[in-house]
Amino acid sequence: MVGVGAERTAEIAASVERFVRDVVIPLEQGAPRSSHGPSDDFVQALRVKAREAGVLTPHILPDGSHLSQRETAKVLIKSGLSPLGPLACNTMAPDEGNMYLLGKVGSPELKDRFLKKMVAGEARSAFFMTEPAAEGGAGSDPSMMQTTCVQDGNHWVINGRKAFITGADGAKVGIVMAKSADGACMFLVDLPDPAIRIDRVLDTIDSSMPGGHSVITIDNLRVPADQMLGQSGEGFQYAQVRLSPARLSHCMRWLGACIRANEIATAYACKRQAFGKLLVDHEGVGFMLAENLIDIQQSELMIDWCASVLDSGSLGTAESSMAKVAVSEALMRIADRCVQIMGGTGVSGDTIVEQVFREIRAFRIYDGPTEVHKWSLAKKVKRDFLKANPA
User: What is the DSSP string of 233-274?
Assistant: First the structure.
C-alpha cells in the first residue's frame, strides 16, 4: 500500500490531535452518557465540528484511497486520545473496519449505495457475525455459525440470531454473515429493516460505542442477490480481508486512550502530595509511571511492525494476533496503573481514566480474546515445525 507519505501523514495526524484536544476533550464531562453509548444526535453534533475542522474520516482521502496501515496508525492513535475522538472523526469501530472492507471488495454500485454515506459520516454501520452463546452460536469460532441463507430466485432469505452486534441500534448499514450450502456468505443491507429485530441492548462494561451491543433476531430477511459480497461460500474469505486491519485499528485507538490516561495520571502524581512529598517522588508511583512509558513504547512499536506487514500485502493473520495480545495486555496494565496511581479519583467519573480502564477490559475480549489468539499461534508453531521437520 503506497499511502501519502510521512510529511502528509504527520500533517493529518497533527490536525486530528489539535481537534481532539481543543474541541472534543472539553466536551467529555458534559457528554450525555448511558451504558449503551453516546446518542446519535450527540455524535452527529461532534461530526459537524469535525467536518468543519477538516478531520472527518481522515484515514480515507477525498479520492476514496486509504492511508497505508502505518499511516492509519499515526492518525487513529491521535483520534483515540479521547473516547469521543473516534466517534467525532468517524474512525470508530465497527465503521472503520466496515469502510475498509467495502473499499477493498465492494462493487462500484455497492460503494455508491452504502460506502459513500459511511465515509461522509452520515450513516453508522453494524457487522452481524457473532451469535448467542447459550444457543450454541458462533463466537470466537465462526465455523459454529447457525444463521442460514437460502436462495429464492434473485433474492436470498436469511434467518437466525445474532448477539453482541455493536451499533445495530441506530445503524443505517448492515453487513450480515450467514451460511449457505456452499459456506459462509456476506450481505449488505439497509437498516432498519422489519425483518431484523433488536430483542435487547445488552448492559456491558464498556460505554463508548453508540447503540451499544444488541441481541438480534433475523426473521425471513430478503436480500437481493446483487447485495452479496462476492459469491456464495466466500464470506470467510472476505472476513479475512477485514479481520487483521480491524483488529489492529482497535489497538491504535485504545493506545491513544491509554496515552491520555497516562497523561492524566502523571499530572495527578506530579501535583498530589502525600506523606511529605509528591506522589511521583514515591518510588512505587514513579516506577508505575516508568512502566507505563515502557508499555506505551512497546505497544506503538508492535502496532507499527504489524502495520508494515499488512502494508506488504500479507493478510497478517498471525502478526495481528500477536499484536492484539501484546497490545491489549500492555494497555490493560497501563490503564490499571493509572487507576491505582490516582486512588479514589481514579475510580470516579471525574476523569476518563476509569472509563478507559473499563473499555480496555472489554477490548481484551473483542476481536478475539487473548487465549484464542495464543491457541491460533500455538497451532502455527506446530504446523511450521512439522513442515520444517517432516517425519
Answer: T-HHHHHHHHHHHHHHHHHHHHHHHHHHHHHHHHHHHHH-EE
pLDDT in tens, 53-74: 999 999 999 888 999 999 999 9
Q: How far apart are CA 18 and CA 342, in angstroms?
A: 26
Cell numbers standing for residue 93: 469501530
**Per the structure block, which three cell numbers stand in for 190?**
439497509
- DSSP assignments along 309-338, one per residue: HHHTT---HHHHHHHHHHHHHHHHHHHHHH
Assign 223 to helix, strand or coil. strand
Residue with cell 465462526: 142
- pLDDT for 146-161, tens place per residue? 999 999 999 999 999 9
321 and 368 in contact (C-beta within 8 Å)?
yes
The tally of CA atoms less than 13 A away on the side-chain side of residue 378 is: 6
From residue 325, how far is each of 92, 176, 371 by CA, in Å?
20, 27, 9
**CA angle 132–135–141, rounded 5-degree value:** 65
The answer to whether the peptide bond before residue 38 is cis (omega within 30 degrees of 0) is: no
Q: Which residues of 286-313 are buried (b: 16+ CB within 10 A; e: fewer)?
A: eebbeebeebbeebbebbeebbbbbbee
Distance between start and end Cα atoms, the chain: 40
List, for residues 222-273, the tens digit of each pLDDT value. 999 999 999 999 999 998 899 899 999 999 999 999 999 999 999 999 999 9
The one-letter amino acid at 391: A
Rounded Cα distance, 21 and 27, in Å? 10
State the Cα–Cα distance between residues 218 and 247, nearest whole angstrom: 26
pTM of the model: 0.95
Instruction: Give CA separation, 67 vs 18, 243, 248, in Å.
Output: 19, 17, 14
